[in-house]
Amino acid sequence: MTTTTLTGWQATAALARLSLKRAARGKALWVTMALSLVPTLYAIAFRAADRVSPDRWEGAVMMTSLLLTVIPPILVASSIADEIDDKTSAYLWSRALPRWSIVLGKFLGLVPIAIAAPIVAVAISFAVLGSAAASVSDLERAVAGLALGTIAASAIAAMIATVMPRFAVAGAVCWLLLIDAPVGALDLNLHVITASFGARTVAGFGGEASLASALISLAVITAGGLAIAIRRMDRIE
Amino acid sequence: MSAPIVVAERCSKWYGAVLGISDITWTMGGGVIGLLGPNGAGKSTLMKLMSGLLRPSRGTIKVHGGDPFADPLVRRRIGYSPEHETTYDELTGRELVTALAHLAGVPRAQAPAAAVAALEVMGMQSAMDRRVKGYSKGMRQRTKLAATLAHDPDLLILDEPLTGVDPIARAEIITKIRSLAKAGKTIVVSSHVLYEIEALTEDIAVIYRGQVLAEGNLYEIRRLIDHHPHRIRVECDRPRALAAALAGADHVRRITMERKAVVIETEQPDRCYDELATAMLESDFVLRGMTSPDNNLGAVFEYLTGDRGRARASE
User: Fold this and answer.
1) If exposure means fewest CB atoms within 10 Å of the residue's CB, which of A44, B30, B165, B237 is most exposed?
2) What is the ipTM of this complex?
3) Domain closes at, from B202, B223, B244
């Protein structure tokens, strides 16, 4: 048998497939699916009461954006932290892999699920509320905002998982819910450091904030979160 | 003489203020080497340093001439089986070993065949399509060993591979490890139970308080240990009946009852294990677990740290 050393990207792809397979069989996927029903129920309730308006669409998108504070911690933070805390990392670290591939592999394997949940939720809300509440372009912006916001929130969750693996999910939820979301809602320039501000602005609910600044903010948060997570993973023993 | 496979030079490892190993200078050639020491002695730390999971706080450790922490090419030649039994429980045995074989460098197309071959070597072919979640401890250990073998490494580092497994699985794993050694693998295996190491090799290194205290032939150490009582804790369906069956044996010093278990203190562990096995089979006991608390072994290590012990061990 011939063995080789995987390149970092081959290892990343292999770890992404492994993470996706594990997530598809774990409880986190069911919790994610259950949570993504909440905004849908909101839309259904207003539709049933015949109180459909653009405000209801904004409410549905804002409610969906709250999923960003829970789903990335459940999927990404728990996956990375469990690897460290349950010591299964020993199987990976003793193999000929660069450690950065572990963070990136898990991130790339799990972020598609994390993105799918709010997107499906907002798409169903759109279908339920109908054209009286929002246009297709509104839906497109909401999908883009939620997708990019989820990527940034997942990078934050990955960072927190490597910094405090024992309390990763609670720590990431606290950060995203109690710091990121309130600061992102402030009418201060400080809000650019939050994923929630970027997501809301790209989704079309950022007031006068520019789309470019929101996109840059999300890119910086994602890159910074992943860089810290990779650096931490390199140092963990 | 072949080149040494592991060379540690003044190697130390601390976890914050806690000492893992201290100033170890040690060279290991081929064959099967047993690392023997009580819990917390530093065996796992030394194995993790060899496997590239940890880097030394001071000094160096080289495996096949390279740094296992920094050099993936070195790690490719190592198969490490950790002490803990946690794995990816959502996967089947086949999926787990396939994934880990691929991550160890087996090309993706060849990984499934390599995994099946390794699982067959470990006798897991009939259960390999079941999820690991439902495996017994013995099956988990065998699956971990299959994952360690699947990429055909030169050096196998097995941390407590017999911990928690039932006697039948233990005997099977011992047979497999010995056959791997015969096939030319270099194997480092750790245990805090002398009896387990004895079944695998005569070449041991005794680790205690982070240092290699003695190395060489097992039997000299064994003679010292036999001077001390040895405790065996057996969990079974009828502990009182088992206690009664062994109560008359002359080597048994004391029997203590626990809830669902019996603890036997013996001066002759070999005889005691033999008689336990006989009693189990003859009276159809259902064995749930067998462990050897290391308190008494610890006492021997304490003894070895004394001048008299050192002198006798080096005789």
Assistant:
1) B237
2) 0.88
3) B223
Q: What distance lies between CA B16 and its chain's CA centroid? A: 26
Percent of chain B whose predicted confidence (pLDDT) is above 90:
47
Contact A3 B108 (CB under 8 A): no
Number of compact structural domains in chain B: 2
Among B54, B55, B99, select the one facing A18 at the smallest CB separation. Answer: B99
DSSP E strand stretches across chain B: 6-15, 18-28, 32-36, 58-63, 78-81, 155-158, 186-191, 203-208, 211-217, 230-236, 252-258, 261-266, 287-291
Residue of A nearest to B110 (CA): A1
Dist. CA B230–CA B265, nearest whole Å:
6
Instruction: Give the nearest partner residue to A5 out of B73, B100, B108, using CB atoms.
Output: B73
Q: By residue range, what is the domain housing residue B287?
A: 229-293
Q: Is B94 on the interface with A (CB under 8 A)?
A: no
Residue B304 has pLDDT above 70, yes or no: no
* Same-domain status, B11 and B160: yes
Using 50, 70 and 90 to split pLDDT, how confident is the model at B299? Answer: low
Place of tokens 């308190």: B295
**Rounded distance between C-alpha atoms, residue B292 and residue B39, angstroms:** 12
- The residue with tokens 């194997």 is B187
B50 DSSP 8-state letter? H
List % helix, strand, coil for chain B (3-state, nearest 5): 40, 30, 35
CA–CA separation, B44 and B197 (whole Å): 15
Q: Based on the domain organization, do B54 and B162 belong to the same domain?
A: yes
Mutation site, B88, B144, B145, interface A, largest A CB count within 10 A: B88
Round the average pLDDT of chain A to a whole number and report it.
92
Contacts of B99 in chain A (CB under 8 A): 14, 17-18
Q: Are residues B158 and B250 in the same domain?
A: no
- Model confidence, pTM: 0.81
Instruction: Summarize pLDDT for B241-256 with one digit per residue, the tens.
Output: 999 988 888 888 889 9
Chain A positions contacting chain B at CB under 8 Å are 1-6, 11, 14-15, 17-18, 21-22, 25-26, 86-88, 90-98, 237
Contact of B85 with chain A, judged by CB distance below 8 Å, is answered with no
Q: Does B151 touch chain A (CB under 8 A)?
A: yes
